[in-house]
Design a protein that fits this description.
Elements: E1 3-11, H1 22-25, H2 28-46, E2 52-55, E3 63-64, E4 94-95, H3 105-113, E5 117-120, H4 135-151, E6 159-161, E7 180-185, H5 200-208, E8 219-220, E9 226-230, E10 232-233, H6 246-263, E11 266-271, H7 279-297, E12 301-304, H8 306-316
Parallel strand pairs: 1-2, 1-11, 1-12, 2-5, 6-7, 7-9, 10-11
Antiparallel strand pairs: 3-4, 8-9
This protein binds zinc ion (2 copies).
The site of one zinc ion has 6 residues, from loops.
Length: 317
């Protein structure tokens, strides 16, 4: 059977990082992500591959503010036991030229022009943990991301990626026009909260040993929204992640595609632009993409975006 391969990229600027305060004090990670994004789009385009780039909706705005007081005063705020500041408190207002880590419309338009799918990663990256975040926050995040995309001249967004992979209030997506979302890795419930060390060592070992990854099949919900399986993140080379060799990264993709072909399933990997802060990391990505491209050339794999995979699943449902 033919394997199916999907790459989705969570594009967030500082919106996906600010709640870990060290990323605001030192913005080098977010800056690296901004620099890496066009290179990622080009690596894919050179191989004839399209991916899904799920943008935080605010990044698509032309500008916001100036604000007299708290930014976006009509936006419902999420609140969490682990964060005591206003969720919009770091939004500087203004536009992309002055604040390229809070606005990135030009990057979304460039990726769209290269043939990639633009999806949503919330509007302000609210983590939609249903145990503490009201449904109205999710309604706003989904609808406002669509509005920002329309204002940017992008086609309606079909694919949603939940911040921190915390799947919550998923029933709001259909009304906002989304047709699919990325499930948490291996269908396991993701932990709600800022990034932490839980399970990280075990996860790193699976990468380093090139463990055969999870593959899965799309499932169509009663409301028509398709739940897309997710396999694992492509890691950068920062810190301990350096121990994962390029050979192991490549081998894991080979194993995943082999399993996906055998099981008529999808290998869906995802990542962040800030993982590709240096040329070595980009070369790792190129090597991984070469594997999928080779499978596709042989006719053994199809490279799909989240949106096309979901459209197929709905057509076959
Ligand atoms: Zn704003
Ligand atoms: Zn994120």
């Amino acid at each position: 059977m033919t394997a199916r391969f999907v790459l989705s990229v969570d594009v967030e600027g500082l919106w996906g990082l600010f709640f870990v305060r060290s990323y605001v004090e030192d913005t080098s990670a977010a800056q690296a992500g901004r620099r890496a994004l066009p290179a990622m789009g080009t690596l894919l385009a050179e191989r004839g591959m399209a991916a899904t780039f799920a943008f935080v909706g605010h990044l698509l705005l032309d500008h916001c503010g100036p604000w007299d007081g708290a930014p976006h005063p009509t936006a419902p705020r999420p609140s969490y036991p682990w964060y005591d500041r206003d969720w919009y408190g770091d939004d500087p207002g203004g536009e992309e030229a002055a604040h390229p880590l809070w606005f990135a419309r030009s990057q979304a338009l460039a990726l769209h022009a290269q043939g990639h799918e633009i999806g949503a990663h919330g509007f302000a990256h609210a983590i939609l943990d249903a145990s503490c975040v009201a449904r109205e926050v999710a309604v706003f995040e989904a609808a406002e991301a669509q509005r920002a995309a329309a204002a940017a001249g992008l086609p309606p967004l079909r694919s949603f990626v939940f911040p921190q992979n915390v799947v919550g209030h998923a029933d709001v997506l259909a009304a906002a026009g989304f047709s699919c979302y990325r499930d948490s890795d291996c269908g396991r419930t993701a932990r709600a909260g800022p990034p932490g060390g839980m399970g990280r060592a075990a996860s790193l070992a699976r990468h380093a040993l090139a463990a055969t990854p999870f593959v899965g099949r799309p499932r169509v919900r009663g409301d028509g929204v398709v739940i897309l399986p997710s396999s694992f993140p492509l890691l950068g080379r920062d810190g301990l992640r350096r121990v994962v060799t390029r050979a192991a990264r490549v081998a894991r993709i080979e194993k995943g595609l082999t399993r996906a072909a055998r099981e008529d399933a999808v290998l869906h990997v995802w990542t962040h632009p800030h993982a590709f802060a240096d040329q070595g990391a980009l070369d790792d990505l190129a090597a991984v993409l070469d594997v999928a491209a080779a499978w596709a050339r042989r006719g053994d794999a199809e490279v799909l975006t989240m949106g096309t995979l979901a459209a197929r699943a709905r057509a076959n449902a």
